Amino acid sequence: GQQVMQIPQYQHVQEGEDFTTYCNSSTTLSNIQWYKQRPGGHPVFLIQLVKSGEVKKQKRLTFQFGEAKKNSSLHITATQTTDVGTYFCAGSNNDMRFGAGTRLTVKP
Amino acid sequence: EAQVTQNPRYLITVTGKKLTVTCSQNMNHEYMSWYRQDPGLGLRQIYYSMNVEVTDKGDVPEGYKVSRKEKRNFPLILESPSPNQTSLYFCASSRRVESPAYEQYFGPGTRLTVT
């Protein structure tokens, strides 16, 4: 069945440094979603990518969907303490599979 | 306010004592799902429902049951809980997840401890 792998599992950065998390699927996806979960909170939808090679930006966050629609990335420029949390990708085809998440901590 | 509610938020129980975690959404969503979240394993889907009276197994359905008699409710039932079901549980809903998918709205979570 469809599997979604996400790396790294943890990332600790100094405030102001960049951060990237990667998501890879074993099968071609129809779309991919990204969620953020703050410590103690629940996952909250960030964005969805549908088209091959699509790039979307939300302020300091840049999301990419690979040409083959099997991988995706989330890049945060100049991290802030408010970026702390776990970032999940979720690949969709006939159903949805979540990656294990990347937990980001930011040192002020 | 559009939301997904879960009850209880916290539960400590003993092995073998049947329990139900309720989930309700007020957005008229067709799709509802249950996930468990464990450290290092992310969100794993337990069961999902595409619509009323339609339920399907996710990745980790063993030891769980669900029902979807009404569109807004999707309870998770543990007939005989065991310690390996100690976890953080999330209910989620969306208009649908097959292409084109819609975002999932998550409930606040239920932290279950089985001793």
Taken in chain order, the helices and strands of chain B follow as EEEEEEEEEEE
* N- to C-terminal distance of chain A: 41 Å
Q: Name the chain pair whose interface involves the most residues.
A: A-B, 24 and 25 residues
* C-alpha geometry of chain B: globular
Based on helices, strands and strand pairing, what is the structural class of chain B?
mainly beta
The averaged pLDDT of chain B comes out at: 94
Structural class given helices, strands, pairing of chain A? mainly beta
* Average of per-residue pLDDT values of chain A: 94
3D architecture notes:
The complex is a heterodimer of chains A (108) and B (115). Chain A has 108 residues and is mainly beta. Chain A is built from no helices and 11 strands. Helix content of chain A is 0%, strand content 56%. Chain A is globular, with a radius of gyration of 13 Å. Chain B is an all-beta fold. Helix content of chain B is 0%, strand content 50%. In chain B, strands 2, 4, 5, 6, 9, 10 and 11 form a 7-stranded mixed sheet that branches. The model of chain B has no long low-confidence stretch (mean pLDDT 94).
Name the descriptors.
heterodimer; A: 108 residues; mainly beta; six-stranded mixed beta sheet; five-stranded antiparallel beta sheet; 0% helix; globular; B: 115 residues; seven-stranded mixed beta sheet; four-stranded antiparallel beta sheet
Compile the SSE list and pairings:
The complex is a heterodimer of chains A (108) and B (115).
Chain A: E1 4-7, E2 10-14, E3 19-25, E4 31-37, E5 44-49, E6 55-58, E7 61-65, E8 71-76, E9 85-92, E10 96-98, E11 102-107
Parallel strand pairs in A: 2-11
Antiparallel strand pairs in A: 1-3, 3-8, 4-5, 4-9, 6-7, 7-8, 9-10, 9-11
Chain B: E1 4-7, E2 10-13, E3 19-25, E4 31-38, E5 42-51, E6 54-57, E7 65-66, E8 76-78, E9 87-94, E10 105-106, E11 110-114
Parallel strand pairs in B: 2-11
Antiparallel strand pairs in B: 1-3, 3-8, 4-5, 4-9, 5-6, 7-8, 9-10, 9-11
